[in-house]
Hints:
Elements: E1 15-19, E2 26-30, E3 33-40, H1 43-74
Antiparallel strand pairs: 1-2, 2-3
Amino acid sequence: MKIKADLKNEVKFTPIFKKDKNADYCKVHYKGFSNAIAKGKTEQEAELNLLQIFIVLLKTRREQIREKSLNSYYSH
């Protein structure tokens, strides 16, 4: 199956940064996704780390859906 992306409907992620005054790093999460938090020495590094977390979460979710679909197909 070929994947088709519609780039006209862009998803906006609003980063929320918090600089830790006691440590030498910055925390970030996206508005609406407060449970996924990353940190880095700079805001850019923190957001890149957050994107890596999202990639892993999406891949994991994709595999869960695929497994559920296969299990459902073979259980009939």
